[in-house]
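Q: My labmate handed me this sequence with no annotations at all. I'd like to see what the chain might look like in three dimensions before we decide whether it's worth expressing. Could you predict it?
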Amino acid sequence: MQDKHVVIFCGREDRDVFINKIDIPYTVYHISDIGGKPEKGDIIVGNQQCYDWILAQYIVDNYDNLHEYTIFTQADPRDHAEYLELAIKSTFTDEYGSFCYARSVYEQYTLTWERLHAVSLSAKRLGIDFDNSLNKRKFIYFCEAGNIFYVHKNRILQKPKSFYQSIIDKDNDDEFYDYVINYNHPQWLYQEINKLHPQLRNLSNKDKIAALTINLTKDQLAKNSKNRQDYLPVSFEPIWRHIFLDDDFFKQLNKAQSLIGNQLSFSSNFDVSPEINTYPFSQNPGQTIYNFRMMENNWFDWNCPYYLKWREKLIEKTLWEGQQRGFNGQDLLDYYERIGYKHISF
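A: Here is what I predict for the chain of 346 residues:
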């Protein structure tokens, strides 16, 4: 029996959705400003403490007494994870794995979103950024939305307690906003902004960044912090996988990403060292997603009874998603079978 502990971020969510269904020891962080009533044993925090703050705080508080596996999740995981009560009882076979149904890759600034989220600058502030990530726009941050994953204590302990404390200390929207606004961004960023957001062409470079760090459906030039709520959490979300990556694998990714979009490396006279492989990154973001998914084949014991029950639900979800989104869900499942991808995600 694996030693597991679940850390749950809870506000006004109905506890019958997930919390009351699980029989694994858990800790609930109740975010009081969101609403709902805390229960006995909850750790009460304010709304200024976002999920990332809570995740880091739990690690700091329990750094010397971690369980074998820690599972982090929202109190209502259904937006991102299906039937999590089955998933968390599955047998884990790696030191990191996500329960999220959907996967995506983010580029450094998420320029096609409603708002700019400087993912690369979140990583840079923590010292876990790629060495050559800002040379050109590229999709290099792989993300499982919602911070719903498991992690082995060995991966957590790769970094000192002070690292996680630094996440807590830097978890401030206004400070990060100022950091991004005043950062010396690469020139290609402004060129991409001009193409994707032509309505901002006549603004100064600094004002372009300011306008894109708020919701574009609101007043584009407003700089009031109320319009910047949740700016930091979204830009931090894709970073957790990189924090918990195996050190050697992170070094391999660091080499790989430096070649993607690196015009010097791809010039006709530049000889790329043969031992440097760009896998799993690709010029095609969709291909990058599938490359990373193939690496998920060691996340779970595929014959575990709980996993098999969860898999049945994931199959149902895939077929339903196909009907809703206009694709053949069975074709997708058959494709996964052909290429040898064992998990089911979207």
